[in-house]
Amino acid sequence: MVLAARDWLASEELGNRFDDVRLLRAGSRFTIYEGRETQAHRTVVIKVPDDHSASWLHDVLDHEAAVLSAISSHPHVITLFQRVQLDDGRPALLLEHCDHSLADTLRDGDRMSLQSAISTGIKLAGALETLHHAGFLHCDVRPSNILVSEWGEPLLAGFDESVHIGSATGRAPLHVTTAHTALELLEGQEPTVRSDVYGLASTLYELVAGRAAFGAYVGESPATVIVRVLSGRVKPIVAPDVPLEISDLLTWGMSADPARRPPSPAWIAEELGRMERRQGWPRTRMISG
Question: pTM value?
Fold first, then answer.
């Protein structure tokens, strides 16, 4: 795969810009490479549309670049270094390099401590508040879209599904991730700030419980998972080290009815901050623009 990645970059006349190129992930829409940018002396992630002729994929990537240009200076948002154009007309994004995501951590069986999960939640709430203040919704908050920087900080990424606030009436997600997708998005309803509240609460639920509230069981069909999600019944987290108040907050944040959820990520962060104070832990600052 490394040779294929090198050959591909060389064919697009980008090979001279990078050393040590390797393929990270080939998806259904975008291919992700890692490479060292020779002139800048830094390792970057290179995100490229798979289909040369799919103009809508080019538009998705350009939209992601526009969103990141507005908010990627935030300390808990992935940094966009540059948008480049390939010879065949496709755009490519050069992004901050991260070794892994929170999903990778959970997959390895490393359940996050409650203190770390709460601190992470406050930081992500600040990133989402900044996104919302810039006029966008994320619509795809989940552990695999939370990368971990070289300094161990969570970084919000994966803006493929992001939309302008109030401009996506009747829009179904392009890429449905059942375990963390708000019910109204699965039903094709308009996303709102509370849709991102759901994604944040669902992500924190998995960090605290070690398992997604609606994670698929072995052998379970996607249709069965969707039926469970649409039922809206979130099981409380029952564990000796998890206070009832955190379980209640996260199940509340995943209410089936958006109107019954907390109104904003900042509201979630404030509640999490109160929990830090009651536990005697250092207070995590929510940074928002």
Answer: 0.91
